[in-house]
Amino acid sequence: MFHLLQRCCFQVSTKMVYLQRLSQPGRSKAACSPVFLECVLAVVPKPKFRQAPELASVTKGRGFHSSCCNWKKRKASEPETRELPLLRYDMEKLKDSPKPALYLGIAGLIPFVSVPLLMAILKASYPELVFAQIAYGASILSFLGGIRWGYALPEGSPAKPDWINLANSVVPSILAWFALLFKDDLTQAGIMVIIGLGIALHYDLALLPTYPSWFKALRAILTIVAVGSLITSMCIMNIYPEKHLTRGAIEMEESK
Description:
The chain is mostly helical and about 260 residues long. It has 2 domains: about 1-55, no CATH class; about 85-255, Butyryl-CoA Dehydrogenase, subunit A, domain 3 (Up-down Bundle), CATH 1.20.140. The chain is about 65% helix and about 0% strand.
């Protein structure tokens, strides 16, 4: 066992091996004398520890870190706070809407929804009804601009009565006026109203100081239904044949 450890762990010279043999029993007393042993030990180098080749290659190319270990626990990173809540977080507050605002808002969708529904039942497109729907959408745009003025003027309101708030609240009214100028082209008029509704919703949700959460959720739902109704009316105009509500009166006057 001793010889195995010598071969694996130590580099033993031939002189050291000779010294070990001399120390075995049965050797001469002269060879085992202290003077002779001291002379041999002075010549024999000290044994060196044999380092594994893998460990030697690692220690040559890399130094070991010997600093003290830091046992302190690191603090977990805190999640970033949202400066602007998304619309999906505001939808949960829809149930907190005041009853008058909720009922009046839903009732305000009747002029939008009734026009495409009536034309789909009659399987005909009536330009007069479509123009009435567009005119109603233009009046709603002006109403949305007035809400911003009423929200910014009271003292202590989050929205200040500055140029940004008051000037942006005028934009929906201007778009509504442009929409009414295209009465001969109902498609362009409807697109103008849709753009105005989208801009007004963007102002109220993201750009300007926002309204309460329940009002933002209600505004989003009402705007989506109104825009969908306008798009449906324009599609029906291109699908079903065009008819006029006053066609019978005009034909009677021509016959006379």
